[in-house]
Inverse folding.
């Protein structure tokens, strides 16, 4: 997966790592294993809880523990310091529960000694649950109930993004894949007919069909999984390829960047948060955001990560993480912070649960071959596609009601609020993103068959036969605890 790197770049990165200091980190994580989208409400499973807790524990050992391998400069190791960390998730049961599970791994209970407070009258008070630590979780409206939503753009509330994604269903590529894949979907009708009718079992519902079978293959007993023998490894792989194809094309299109609105908002949130670490001289150190895979896919396309590896055309597995590290090789002291000329950003990705035996991989951003990127280069690259203000969002989405009604008259001056990454400009904060999420949603009418529609998979490549479909690139389910047959 690192074939795009030159040997010299890798060698330089290896030499720099020994002298490097991590100043701050931004983590965007997908939720853990859940029940199927097609049988709402979706809920985090015990397996999913374990996955995000395991990932949180890994990132503790990487960034927070006193003996962490890449400890964030000045980060509290045992007792959480609220000013150092910001955690957020949409108003969604699966995502919020995943965030709390992750945070438990990040800052576990501190025991009787640290988790005890003596009052003025001499009374000793022990923190419940062996010193369980409470970390506030900010909630945003963007992505509300995304794990119960069958339609990707339904949670973005962005009219132009919805229109753009709907255009995909009229494309020659979609229709060709739809027709070529129909025999495959006909063959799986006996496995899904309690949820999907025969007329609904087609490429139009590629993700929800695969998702239902994936969940069943992990959790269902033989009595609750009719005709399970029909789900051979070959059939499962083809369904996964088609789901990736479907989802990626709903989340990103090179000629219509508005389709990737969630990735554009994420890009600005990352820049704004890391810039706050710099401008506050490290008072804010760690940001953790939980969200659906749609935002990941959108960002993959916008940041041209698909050039670094074809795996980025695929749907990230449960508990996958995108990580941005703010690093420097300059001397760092309390009260003396490096200048932006001495700061760089490293991007890492891990598909699925992160652990000591399965760690994140470094990738170059924006189609280049350099990592980490100097701060200014990183900011300039992100600013090429990020949405930086509420007015920009309203203009790009074509929304003119709700909050956008007051923004439309002043949209001509919105460019002045662009965040240059060096002076703490006015980006979309989690709170503003939450307000945006409450805007009026464009109704999506695609006919009776569009009962369930979803986020995106692989790049559309014209395929004439199902045998050709088997050759597509995707993030492989092989070796992933959430994408294997049980």
């Amino acid at each position: 997966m690192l074939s795009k790197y030159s040997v010299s770049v890798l060698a330089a990165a290896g030499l720099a790592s020994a002298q490097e200091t991590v100043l701050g980190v931004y983590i965007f994580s997908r939720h853990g294993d859940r029940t199927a989208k097609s049988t709402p409400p979706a809920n985090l499973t015990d397996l999913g809880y374990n996955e995000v807790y395991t990932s949180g524990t890994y990132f503790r050992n990487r960034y927070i523990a006193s003996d962490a391998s890449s400890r964030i400069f000045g980060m509290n190791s045992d007792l959480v310091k609220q000013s150092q960390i910001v955690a957020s998730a949409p108003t969604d049961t699966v995502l919020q529960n995943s965030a709390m599970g992750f945070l438990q791994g990040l800052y576990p209970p501190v025991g009787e000694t640290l988790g005890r407070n003596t009052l003025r009258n001499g009374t000793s008070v022990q923190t419940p649950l062996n010193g369980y630590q409470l970390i506030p979780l900010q909630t945003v409206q963007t992505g509300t109930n995304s794990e119960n939503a069958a339609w990707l753009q339904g949670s973005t509330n962005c009219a132009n993004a919805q229109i753009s994604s709907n255009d995909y269903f009229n494309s020659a590529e979609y229709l060709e894949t739809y027709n070529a894949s129909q025999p495959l979907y006909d063959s799986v009708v006996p496995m899904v007919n309690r949820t999907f009718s025969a007329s609904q079992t087609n490429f139009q519902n590629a993700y929800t069909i695969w998702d239902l079978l994936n969940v069943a293959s992990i959790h269902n007993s033989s009595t609750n999984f009719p005709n399970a023998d029909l789900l051979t490894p070959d059939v499962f792989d083809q369904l996964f390829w088609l789901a990736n194809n479907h989802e990626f094309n709903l989340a990103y299109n090179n000629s219509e960047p508005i389709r990737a609105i969630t990735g554009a908002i994420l890009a600005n949130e990352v820049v704004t948060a890391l810039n706050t670490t710099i401008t506050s001289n490290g008072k804010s150190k760690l940001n953790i955001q939980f969200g659906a895979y749609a935002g990941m896919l959108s960002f993959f396309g916008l940041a041209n990560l698909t050039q670094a590896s074809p795996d980025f055309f695929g749907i990230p597995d449960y508990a996958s993480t995108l990580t941005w590290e703010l690093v420097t090789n300059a001397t760092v002291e309390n009260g003396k912070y490096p200048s932006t000329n001495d700061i760089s950003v490293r991007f890492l990705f891990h598909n699925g649960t992160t652990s000591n035996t399965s760690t994140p991989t470094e990738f170059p951003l924006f189609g280049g071959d350099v990592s980490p990127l100097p701060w200014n280069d990183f900011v300039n690259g992100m600013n090429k596609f990020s949405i930086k203000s509420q007015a920009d969002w309203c203009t790009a989405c074509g929304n003119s009601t709700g909050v956008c009604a007051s923004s439309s008259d002043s949209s001509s001056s919105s460019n002045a609020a662009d965040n240059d990454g060096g002076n703490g400009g006015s980006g979309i904060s989690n709170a503003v993103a939450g307000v945006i999420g409450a805007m009026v949603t464009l109704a999506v009418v695609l006919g009776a068959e569009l009962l369930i529609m979803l986020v995106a998979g692989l790049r559309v490549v014209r395929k004439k036969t199902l045998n050709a479909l088997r050759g597509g690139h995707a993030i492989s389910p092989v070796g992933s605890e959430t994408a294997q047959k049980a």
In short: The chain has 17 helices and eleven strands.
